[in-house]
Amino acid sequence: MYRYHRSILAPTLAAGMVAGWAAAADPVVERDPSPLVDRRVEELAPTPEERRFDEIGWARDIREGRRLSRESGRPLFLFTHDGRMAVGRC
Amino acid sequence: MRAGPLSSPRVVELLNSRYVPVYTSNEDYVKRGAVPDDEVAEWSRIYRASLDAGLSTGTVHVYIVAPDGRPLGSLHVAEAAKTEKLIDLLESAASGPGAPTGKPLVPPRPQSRPASAPEGSLVLHLIARGKKGASWDGIPSEDWIILDGRRREGLIGGEMRPGESWEVPRETSALIFSRFYPQTENNNASPDRIDEQSLRATVLSAEGDRARIRLDGALRLRHDFYPGRKDGREVRATVIGYMDADTRKRTILGFRLVTDKATYGPGELEVAVSSAETPAKTSDKRSRI
Question: Interface pTM (ipTM) of the complex?
Protein backbone atom coordinates (compact mmCIF):
# COMPACT_ATOMS: atom_id res chain seq x y z
CA MET A 1 0.00 0.00 0.00
CA TYR A 2 1.49 3.31 -1.03
CA ARG A 3 1.04 6.49 0.89
CA TYR A 4 1.69 9.89 -0.61
CA HIS A 5 2.68 13.19 0.76
CA ARG A 6 1.75 16.38 -1.00
CA SER A 7 5.21 16.41 -2.47
CA ILE A 8 7.06 13.17 -2.90
CA LEU A 9 10.32 14.41 -4.29
CA ALA A 10 13.54 13.30 -2.77
CA PRO A 11 15.12 16.14 -0.83
CA THR A 12 18.44 15.28 -2.43
CA LEU A 13 17.84 17.23 -5.62
CA ALA A 14 20.84 19.05 -6.91
CA ALA A 15 21.88 21.60 -4.36
CA GLY A 16 20.77 25.08 -5.15
CA MET A 17 18.29 23.99 -7.82
CA VAL A 18 15.15 26.05 -7.94
CA ALA A 19 15.74 27.72 -4.63
CA GLY A 20 12.98 27.29 -2.13
CA TRP A 21 11.28 24.57 -4.12
CA ALA A 22 13.24 21.41 -3.65
CA ALA A 23 13.95 22.46 -0.11
CA ALA A 24 10.22 22.55 0.60
CA ALA A 25 9.69 18.96 -0.51
CA ASP A 26 8.51 16.50 2.10
CA PRO A 27 10.55 13.42 2.90
CA VAL A 28 10.16 10.46 0.60
CA VAL A 29 7.54 8.03 1.83
CA GLU A 30 7.97 5.30 -0.76
CA ARG A 31 10.86 4.87 -3.09
CA ASP A 32 8.92 3.45 -6.03
CA PRO A 33 6.79 6.32 -7.36
CA SER A 34 5.15 4.33 -10.15
CA PRO A 35 1.60 4.19 -8.68
CA LEU A 36 1.51 7.94 -8.25
CA VAL A 37 3.19 8.63 -11.58
CA ASP A 38 0.89 6.25 -13.47
CA ARG A 39 -2.16 7.88 -11.90
CA ARG A 40 -0.97 11.39 -12.83
CA VAL A 41 -0.25 10.30 -16.42
CA GLU A 42 -3.80 8.97 -16.71
CA GLU A 43 -5.31 12.07 -15.10
CA LEU A 44 -3.53 14.45 -17.45
CA ALA A 45 -4.32 12.55 -20.64
CA PRO A 46 -6.66 14.36 -23.04
CA THR A 47 -10.33 13.58 -22.49
CA PRO A 48 -12.70 12.50 -25.28
CA GLU A 49 -14.20 16.02 -25.23
CA GLU A 50 -10.74 17.47 -25.79
CA ARG A 51 -10.26 15.02 -28.67
CA ARG A 52 -13.49 15.94 -30.47
CA PHE A 53 -11.35 17.70 -33.05
CA ASP A 54 -10.15 14.21 -34.05
CA GLU A 55 -13.70 13.26 -35.00
CA ILE A 56 -13.46 15.55 -38.03
CA GLY A 57 -12.34 13.92 -41.27
CA TRP A 58 -9.56 16.37 -42.11
CA ALA A 59 -7.99 16.21 -45.54
CA ARG A 60 -4.19 16.04 -45.53
CA ASP A 61 -3.61 19.36 -47.27
CA ILE A 62 -5.23 21.91 -49.58
CA ARG A 63 -4.44 19.97 -52.73
CA GLU A 64 -6.12 16.82 -51.44
CA GLY A 65 -8.99 18.92 -50.15
CA ARG A 66 -9.50 20.64 -53.50
CA ARG A 67 -9.41 17.31 -55.34
CA LEU A 68 -12.02 15.81 -53.01
CA SER A 69 -14.08 18.96 -53.29
CA ARG A 70 -14.12 18.78 -57.11
CA GLU A 71 -14.95 15.07 -57.06
CA SER A 72 -17.70 15.30 -54.43
CA GLY A 73 -19.22 18.68 -55.18
CA ARG A 74 -18.79 19.67 -51.52
CA PRO A 75 -17.21 23.03 -50.65
CA LEU A 76 -13.78 23.21 -49.07
CA PHE A 77 -13.53 24.47 -45.48
CA LEU A 78 -10.07 25.91 -44.91
CA PHE A 79 -8.78 27.15 -41.56
CA THR A 80 -5.37 28.83 -41.70
CA HIS A 81 -3.64 29.44 -38.38
CA ASP A 82 -0.37 30.11 -36.59
CA GLY A 83 1.20 27.33 -34.56
CA ARG A 84 0.17 23.67 -34.41
CA MET A 85 -3.50 23.25 -33.62
CA ALA A 86 -3.27 19.46 -33.73
CA VAL A 87 -1.08 19.42 -30.64
CA GLY A 88 -2.56 22.43 -28.89
CA ARG A 89 0.50 24.55 -29.57
CA CYS A 90 -1.11 27.59 -31.18
CA MET B 1 -10.92 27.48 -32.40
CA ARG B 2 -10.14 23.91 -31.41
CA ALA B 3 -11.47 24.29 -27.87
CA GLY B 4 -14.49 26.23 -29.16
CA PRO B 5 -16.34 25.66 -32.41
CA LEU B 6 -14.16 22.81 -33.65
CA SER B 7 -15.26 20.85 -30.57
CA SER B 8 -18.94 21.64 -31.16
CA PRO B 9 -20.91 18.51 -32.14
CA ARG B 10 -22.91 20.57 -34.66
CA VAL B 11 -19.78 21.98 -36.31
CA VAL B 12 -18.21 18.52 -36.40
CA GLU B 13 -21.37 17.16 -38.02
CA LEU B 14 -21.53 19.96 -40.61
CA LEU B 15 -17.87 19.65 -41.55
CA ASN B 16 -18.08 15.88 -41.84
CA SER B 17 -21.33 15.72 -43.77
CA ARG B 18 -21.21 18.75 -46.08
CA TYR B 19 -17.59 19.90 -46.44
CA VAL B 20 -14.07 18.87 -47.17
CA PRO B 21 -12.29 20.25 -44.10
CA VAL B 22 -8.62 21.25 -44.14
CA TYR B 23 -6.45 23.17 -41.68
CA THR B 24 -3.03 24.56 -42.41
CA SER B 25 -0.21 25.93 -40.29
CA ASN B 26 1.09 29.25 -41.65
CA GLU B 27 4.66 28.38 -40.71
CA ASP B 28 4.67 25.64 -43.32
CA TYR B 29 3.53 27.99 -46.08
CA VAL B 30 5.90 30.87 -45.52
CA LYS B 31 8.98 28.69 -45.00
CA ARG B 32 10.34 27.76 -48.38
CA GLY B 33 10.43 24.03 -49.00
CA ALA B 34 8.28 22.96 -46.04
CA VAL B 35 5.37 22.06 -48.35
CA PRO B 36 5.33 21.62 -52.15
CA ASP B 37 5.19 24.74 -54.31
CA ASP B 38 1.80 23.88 -55.81
CA GLU B 39 0.36 23.58 -52.31
CA VAL B 40 1.64 27.06 -51.42
CA ALA B 41 0.34 28.39 -54.76
CA GLU B 42 -3.19 27.17 -54.03
CA TRP B 43 -3.05 28.57 -50.49
CA SER B 44 -2.06 31.96 -51.96
CA ARG B 45 -4.68 31.75 -54.71
CA ILE B 46 -7.50 31.23 -52.20
CA TYR B 47 -6.29 34.22 -50.21
CA ARG B 48 -6.08 36.48 -53.27
CA ALA B 49 -9.37 35.29 -54.75
CA SER B 50 -11.13 35.99 -51.46
CA LEU B 51 -9.58 39.44 -51.37
CA ASP B 52 -10.68 40.11 -54.96
CA ALA B 53 -14.19 38.95 -54.10
CA GLY B 54 -14.40 41.52 -51.34
CA LEU B 55 -14.38 38.93 -48.58
CA SER B 56 -12.46 39.29 -45.34
CA THR B 57 -8.95 37.86 -45.43
CA GLY B 58 -6.18 37.21 -42.97
CA THR B 59 -3.59 34.71 -41.91
CA VAL B 60 -5.69 33.24 -39.10
CA HIS B 61 -8.92 32.88 -40.96
CA VAL B 62 -11.68 30.58 -42.19
CA TYR B 63 -12.25 30.35 -45.95
CA ILE B 64 -15.05 28.53 -47.76
CA VAL B 65 -14.21 27.58 -51.34
CA ALA B 66 -16.63 26.19 -53.95
CA PRO B 67 -15.79 22.97 -55.82
CA ASP B 68 -14.80 25.09 -58.84
CA GLY B 69 -12.39 27.13 -56.71
CA ARG B 70 -14.49 30.28 -56.25
CA PRO B 71 -14.47 31.76 -52.74
CA LEU B 72 -17.90 31.48 -51.14
CA GLY B 73 -17.30 33.04 -47.73
CA SER B 74 -14.78 33.80 -45.02
CA LEU B 75 -14.57 34.71 -41.36
CA HIS B 76 -11.84 36.28 -39.28
CA VAL B 77 -10.86 33.98 -36.42
CA ALA B 78 -12.34 36.36 -33.87
CA GLU B 79 -15.73 35.79 -35.49
CA ALA B 80 -15.22 32.17 -36.46
CA ALA B 81 -14.37 31.36 -32.85
CA LYS B 82 -17.97 32.18 -31.97
CA THR B 83 -19.64 28.84 -32.52
CA GLU B 84 -22.99 30.24 -33.68
CA LYS B 85 -21.27 32.50 -36.23
CA LEU B 86 -19.36 29.59 -37.69
CA ILE B 87 -22.46 27.40 -37.78
CA ASP B 88 -24.31 30.18 -39.64
CA LEU B 89 -21.57 30.35 -42.25
CA LEU B 90 -21.34 26.57 -42.62
CA GLU B 91 -25.10 26.17 -42.95
CA SER B 92 -25.52 28.99 -45.45
CA ALA B 93 -22.58 28.10 -47.69
CA ALA B 94 -23.54 24.44 -48.13
CA SER B 95 -27.31 24.43 -48.11
CA GLY B 96 -30.06 23.98 -50.65
CA PRO B 97 -31.68 20.90 -52.14
CA GLY B 98 -28.73 20.02 -54.36
CA ALA B 99 -26.03 20.33 -51.72
CA PRO B 100 -24.23 17.01 -51.44
CA THR B 101 -24.12 15.47 -48.00
CA GLY B 102 -22.90 12.21 -46.58
CA LYS B 103 -20.17 10.61 -44.57
CA PRO B 104 -16.76 12.22 -44.09
CA LEU B 105 -14.71 11.90 -47.27
CA VAL B 106 -11.57 11.30 -45.23
CA PRO B 107 -11.80 8.88 -42.30
CA PRO B 108 -11.31 10.77 -39.03
CA ARG B 109 -8.09 9.87 -37.25
CA PRO B 110 -6.01 11.25 -34.38
CA GLN B 111 -4.40 14.49 -35.47
CA SER B 112 -1.68 14.40 -32.84
CA ARG B 113 0.78 11.79 -34.01
CA PRO B 114 4.51 11.30 -33.63
CA ALA B 115 6.79 11.86 -36.57
CA SER B 116 8.38 8.73 -37.90
CA ALA B 117 11.26 7.73 -35.65
CA PRO B 118 14.47 5.86 -36.47
CA GLU B 119 14.57 2.24 -35.38
CA GLY B 120 15.65 1.92 -31.78
CA SER B 121 14.26 5.32 -30.78
CA LEU B 122 12.22 5.96 -27.68
CA VAL B 123 9.11 8.00 -28.51
CA LEU B 124 7.81 10.15 -25.66
CA HIS B 125 4.38 11.78 -25.53
CA LEU B 126 4.15 14.94 -23.44
CA ILE B 127 0.95 16.55 -22.16
CA ALA B 128 1.09 20.04 -20.59
CA ARG B 129 -1.85 21.69 -18.88
CA GLY B 130 -1.86 25.27 -17.65
CA LYS B 131 -4.03 26.03 -14.65
CA LYS B 132 -5.20 29.12 -12.83
CA GLY B 133 -4.28 31.66 -15.48
CA ALA B 134 -1.15 29.97 -16.74
CA SER B 135 -2.66 29.34 -20.15
CA TRP B 136 -5.35 30.71 -22.42
CA ASP B 137 -7.19 27.67 -23.59
CA GLY B 138 -8.89 24.57 -22.30
CA ILE B 139 -7.07 22.21 -24.62
CA PRO B 140 -3.89 20.63 -23.29
CA SER B 141 -0.70 21.01 -25.25
CA GLU B 142 1.08 17.96 -26.57
CA ASP B 143 4.51 17.19 -27.90
CA TRP B 144 6.13 14.11 -29.32
CA ILE B 145 9.77 13.84 -28.32
CA ILE B 146 11.96 11.33 -30.05
CA LEU B 147 15.07 10.08 -28.28
CA ASP B 148 17.18 8.36 -30.91
CA GLY B 149 19.06 5.17 -30.13
CA ARG B 150 22.10 6.99 -28.77
CA ARG B 151 20.06 9.15 -26.41
CA ARG B 152 17.95 6.15 -25.39
CA GLU B 153 21.08 4.24 -24.44
CA GLY B 154 22.38 7.31 -22.65
CA LEU B 155 19.49 7.15 -20.19
CA ILE B 156 21.20 4.15 -18.60
CA GLY B 157 24.26 4.54 -16.42
CA GLY B 158 26.33 2.24 -14.25
CA GLU B 159 25.85 -1.49 -13.82
CA MET B 160 22.16 -1.21 -12.96
CA ARG B 161 22.57 -2.41 -9.41
CA PRO B 162 20.00 -1.29 -6.83
CA GLY B 163 21.13 1.93 -5.23
CA GLU B 164 23.22 3.12 -8.16
CA SER B 165 22.49 6.67 -9.21
CA TRP B 166 23.49 8.91 -12.10
CA GLU B 167 22.55 12.15 -13.79
CA VAL B 168 20.65 11.78 -17.08
CA PRO B 169 22.73 13.47 -19.81
CA ARG B 170 21.90 17.15 -19.84
CA GLU B 171 21.35 17.19 -23.59
CA THR B 172 18.70 14.48 -23.28
CA SER B 173 16.85 15.93 -20.30
CA ALA B 174 16.94 19.34 -22.03
CA LEU B 175 15.09 17.87 -25.00
CA ILE B 176 12.32 16.84 -22.64
CA PHE B 177 12.32 19.81 -20.28
CA SER B 178 12.33 22.38 -23.08
CA ARG B 179 8.71 21.36 -23.78
CA PHE B 180 7.55 21.95 -20.23
CA TYR B 181 5.27 24.91 -20.85
CA PRO B 182 1.50 25.34 -21.22
CA GLN B 183 -0.41 26.50 -24.26
CA THR B 184 0.98 29.90 -25.16
CA GLU B 185 1.29 31.85 -28.37
CA ASN B 186 5.05 31.50 -28.10
CA ASN B 187 6.17 28.04 -29.14
CA ASN B 188 9.90 28.53 -29.01
CA ALA B 189 11.06 25.25 -27.50
CA SER B 190 14.79 25.90 -27.68
CA PRO B 191 16.80 24.24 -24.88
CA ASP B 192 18.66 27.55 -24.60
CA ARG B 193 15.79 28.82 -22.45
CA ILE B 194 16.69 26.44 -19.64
CA ASP B 195 18.46 28.19 -16.76
CA GLU B 196 18.63 25.26 -14.35
CA GLN B 197 17.96 21.60 -14.78
CA SER B 198 18.56 18.29 -13.07
CA LEU B 199 17.27 14.79 -13.75
CA ARG B 200 18.71 12.10 -11.53
CA ALA B 201 18.17 8.38 -12.02
CA THR B 202 18.39 5.87 -9.17
CA VAL B 203 18.03 2.11 -9.53
CA LEU B 204 15.28 0.98 -7.19
CA SER B 205 15.17 -2.70 -7.97
CA ALA B 206 16.62 -5.30 -10.27
CA GLU B 207 15.36 -8.79 -10.88
CA GLY B 208 16.36 -11.07 -13.74
CA ASP B 209 16.92 -8.83 -16.72
CA ARG B 210 14.58 -6.09 -15.53
CA ALA B 211 15.26 -3.01 -13.46
CA ARG B 212 13.14 -0.17 -12.21
CA ILE B 213 14.79 3.22 -12.04
CA ARG B 214 13.42 6.21 -10.20
CA LEU B 215 13.72 9.72 -11.65
CA ASP B 216 13.87 12.93 -9.63
CA GLY B 217 14.54 16.34 -11.01
CA ALA B 218 13.96 20.05 -11.16
CA LEU B 219 13.78 22.73 -13.80
CA ARG B 220 13.81 26.46 -14.28
CA LEU B 221 12.94 27.59 -17.80
CA ARG B 222 12.37 31.02 -19.34
CA HIS B 223 9.27 31.14 -21.53
CA ASP B 224 7.54 34.34 -22.67
CA PHE B 225 3.82 34.03 -23.35
CA TYR B 226 3.98 35.86 -26.69
CA PRO B 227 6.79 35.44 -29.22
CA GLY B 228 9.26 38.31 -29.18
CA ARG B 229 7.63 39.98 -26.18
CA LYS B 230 9.74 39.54 -23.05
CA ASP B 231 7.57 39.22 -19.96
CA GLY B 232 9.93 37.53 -17.52
CA ARG B 233 7.73 34.49 -17.12
CA GLU B 234 9.39 31.24 -16.28
CA VAL B 235 8.52 27.67 -15.51
CA ARG B 236 9.66 26.32 -12.16
CA ALA B 237 9.07 22.66 -11.66
CA THR B 238 10.07 19.66 -9.66
CA VAL B 239 9.50 16.31 -11.34
CA ILE B 240 9.31 12.64 -10.44
CA GLY B 241 9.09 9.53 -12.56
CA TYR B 242 10.49 6.13 -13.34
CA MET B 243 12.00 4.06 -16.09
CA ASP B 244 11.92 0.32 -16.67
CA ALA B 245 15.03 -1.13 -18.26
CA ASP B 246 16.18 -4.35 -19.82
CA THR B 247 19.49 -4.80 -18.03
CA ARG B 248 20.78 -7.46 -20.42
CA LYS B 249 20.17 -5.41 -23.54
CA ARG B 250 20.85 -2.19 -21.62
CA THR B 251 17.86 -0.44 -23.07
CA ILE B 252 14.96 1.53 -21.64
CA LEU B 253 11.59 -0.19 -22.09
CA GLY B 254 9.35 2.42 -20.52
CA PHE B 255 9.65 6.01 -19.33
CA ARG B 256 7.23 8.11 -17.30
CA LEU B 257 7.78 11.52 -15.76
CA VAL B 258 5.32 13.97 -14.19
CA THR B 259 5.51 17.34 -12.49
CA ASP B 260 5.28 17.23 -8.75
CA LYS B 261 4.97 20.96 -8.24
CA ALA B 262 5.12 23.37 -11.17
CA THR B 263 4.28 26.97 -11.89
CA TYR B 264 4.31 29.12 -14.99
CA GLY B 265 4.34 32.82 -14.23
CA PRO B 266 1.45 33.49 -11.86
CA GLY B 267 -0.34 30.22 -12.66
CA GLU B 268 0.18 26.54 -12.25
CA LEU B 269 1.35 23.91 -14.68
CA GLU B 270 0.98 20.16 -14.88
CA VAL B 271 3.02 18.03 -17.25
CA ALA B 272 3.14 14.30 -17.92
CA VAL B 273 5.59 12.52 -20.18
CA SER B 274 5.10 8.90 -21.13
CA SER B 275 6.83 6.58 -23.55
CA ALA B 276 4.65 5.38 -26.38
CA GLU B 277 5.42 1.81 -25.39
CA THR B 278 3.77 0.64 -22.20
CA PRO B 279 6.31 0.50 -19.37
CA ALA B 280 7.11 -3.10 -18.58
CA LYS B 281 5.39 -4.63 -15.62
CA THR B 282 7.83 -5.68 -12.97
CA SER B 283 7.34 -8.34 -10.36
CA ASP B 284 6.05 -7.40 -6.93
CA LYS B 285 8.85 -9.53 -5.55
CA ARG B 286 11.60 -7.41 -7.10
CA SER B 287 14.48 -6.49 -4.89
CA ARG B 288 14.48 -3.23 -3.01
CA ILE B 289 17.26 -0.84 -2.20
Answer: 0.86
